[in-house]
Amino acid sequence: MNIALKTYSGSIVVRPDTTWERDNEDLFLPDFVTGLEFTPVLAVQVTRPGRSISAKFSGRYYGNIGYGVLLYPKDLLKGEEGFAEASCMDHTSFIAMPDADRRSEAFVLECNGQKVFEGDGSAIDVDALIAEITKRIYIRTGDIVAIELAPRKALPHGNLRITGASVDFNVIME
Q1: How far, CA to CA in Å, does 98 sit from each of 36, 64, 75, 87?
Q2: Do strands 12-15 and 3-6 pair parallel, antiparallel, or not at all (unpaired)?
Q3: Alpha-carbon distance 104 to 66, whole Å?
Q4: Please, which pLDDT band fits residue 174 given cuts at 50, 70 and 90?
Q5: By the 8 A CB rule, do 159 and 172 touch?
Q6: What is the pLDDT of residues 133-159, one digit of tens each?
Q7: How far apart are CA 41 and CA 150, in angstroms?
Q8: Do 40 and 63 meet the contact criterion of CB atoms below 8 Å apart?
Q9: Cα–Cα distance between 100 and 102 in angstroms, integer?
Q10: pLDDT of 9-68, one tens digit each?
């Protein structure tokens, strides 16, 4: 299971399944991480495998649609391979798949009680997204296809509580 992602800038990348935190468990950051960036995502659950799927038929390949948040350690975002390295850190993809299509519902993300993002995915053409991603990536049952809803932003330094419609976890910096 992987997370095929279209970044806010339009690149297509894959985050490994080890980054997916399904149960919103607390994130304990290693000592070398001194800061985090985040981006909210719209996430789509893949129900059938496929490659080069036409937008016309992509509705057959996905199910529920929800929201989540991706974290990126600032310390790894340096250099040529920095984004790839930051995208692979374990337990940094907080996505809970809902039991229905939640695309038109507002997604409010808060950090320590302060609103850091509010929006929805109603303008996202999921069929076109699936078609675009599967031009390059073979998707499998259980994968998640996601699209960033905003550019990455820095989170405050220190211990954090992140809450939203489908996310509720703590980030502990020791």
Answers
A1: 26, 6, 32, 23
A2: antiparallel
A3: 10
A4: low
A5: yes
A6: 999 999 999 999 999 999 999 998 888
A7: 8
A8: no
A9: 6
A10: 999 999 999 999 988 889 999 988 999 999 999 999 999 999 999 999 999 999 999 999
**Number of helical H runs and strand E runs in the chain:** 2, 12
Say which amino acid occupies 8: Y
Work out the number of other CB atoms within 10 angstroms of the CB of residue 126.
19
Structure tokens at 2: 């992987």
Q: Which of 84, 82, 86 is nearest to 30 (CA)?
A: 86
Tokens coding 31: 């000592």
Residues in the chain: 174
- pTM (2 decimals)? 0.93
Q: Which two tokens stand for residue 108?
A: 């409010």
Identify the three-state secondary structure at position 109: strand
The backbone torsions φ and ψ at residue 31, rounded to the nearest 5 degrees and listed phi first, read -55, -35
Burial class (CB in 10 A: 0-12, 13-18, 19+), 29: buried
Kindly compute the dihedral angle of the four CA atoms of residues 47, 52, 54, 59, in this order, to the nearest 10 degrees.
10
Cβ atoms of residues 134 and 98 within 8 Å = no
Token digits of residue 104? 């038109």
